[in-house]
Write a structure and sequence with these properties.
Helix content: 10-25%
Oligomer: single chain
CATH superfamily: Clavaminate synthase-like
Number of domains: 1
Distance between the termini: 18 Å
GO biological process, one term: sulfur compound metabolic process
CATH architecture: 4-Layer Sandwich
InterPro entries: AtsK-like (IPR051323), TauD-like_sf (IPR042098), TauD/TfdA-like (IPR003819)
CATH topology: Double-stranded beta-helix
Order of helices and strands: EEHEHEEEHHEHEEEEHEEEE
Shape: globular
Number of strands: 15
GO cellular component, one term: cytoplasm
Domain TauD/TfdA-like: 17-269
Number of helices: 6
Keywords: Dioxygenase, Iron, Metal-binding, Oxidoreductase
Length: 278
């Protein structure tokens, strides 16, 4: 059993669980102000413990947004989407009546085709539709634990290719540009908690090395369907000036685009991670 299982009492905020296995809304902390070392330590513990943490009524500036991310590590520059003017580490997340698509409409782990996928992402939305526009999260710990022991044994040691080119070529039609491609374990071990989790996703993972195309497709399609189980998931309902901060190593997420033509707008910071290991 990991030290990050179960609840914990924090000095600087209250953590209200969303489900028994994932997610917590943190009350009593002001992210618009610089945080003390002890506050930062408690936030790091909460992210590892709950996999995704949420905040309400946090009207943060771009600098405060970046400062929050840097408490967890260096900020990553998106490998496909340019940052906003003056802040290359911040990506605008925006949809309105003119949008032809929105980011993250399928289950995925952010930038998993990078050689070192992100530790996590912090999404701040200042403008949201009256209803709709939720973000869904699925726990890859829970998904792994639900596998049979024989399937766990089979998947152990397998590696899969993650390729960003099909994703971004379809969006941007820039077929001459090359995007990251990387090979990662199908089952990775979280570097902080030590827990095992599934690390393939339907957006970026193209095939499993060492298997025939038919075998790879069958195994991946099983895992892609498996992580959609609602028993592994939570659904976050946005309000203006809310923040969702997810551990990219332990969860997948999906943005629900059910609010067209209304506006959903904000900014995202991504924190650099490390090479996944089994």
């Amino acid at each position: 059993m990991s030290e990050f299982d179960g609840d914990k009492t924090y000095q600087h905020f209250t953590a209200n669980r969303v489900t028994p296995y994932m997610g917590a809304e943190l009350d009593g902390i002001d992210l618009t102000r610089p945080l003390s070392p002890s506050q930062a330590d408690e936030l790091r513990d909460a992210l590892a413990r709950f996999q995704v943490i949420f905040f309400r009524d946090q009207e943060i500036s771009h600098d405060a947004h970046k400062d929050l991310g840097r408490l967890f590590g260096p900020l990553a520059i998106h490998s496909a989407v340019a940052g906003i003017d003056g802040h290359p580490e911040i990506v605008a997340i925006h949809a309105d009546a003119d949008s032809k698509y929105v980011a993250g409409e399928s289950w995925h782990s952010d930038l998993s085709a990078d050689e070192e996928p992100p530790l996590g992402s912090i999404l701040y939305l200042h403008t949201v539709p009256e209803t709709g526009g939720d973000t869904m999260f699925s726990s890859m710990y829970k998904a792994y634990d639900a596998l049979s022991e024989r399937m766990k044994t089979y998947l152990e040691g397998l590696e899969a290719v993650h390729d960003a080119n099909p994703v971004y070529h379809a969006l941007f039609k820039d077929y001459d540009k090359r995007y990251p491609v990387a090979t990662h374990p199908v089952i990775r071990r979280h570097p902080v908690t030590g827990k095992k989790c599934i690390f393939v996703n339907s957006s970026y993972t193209t095939h499993i090395e060492g298997l025939s195309d038919e075998e790879s497709k069958a195994v991946l399609n099983f895992l892609f369907d498996h992580v959609k189980n609602p028993n592994f998931q939570i659904r976050f309902r946005w309000k203006p000036h809310s923040i969702a901060f997810w551990d990219n190593r332990a969860v997948q997420h999906l943005a629900v685009w059910d609010y067209f033509p209304e506006v959903r707008s904000g900014f995202r910071v991504t924190i650099a991670g490390d090479k996944p290991v089994s």
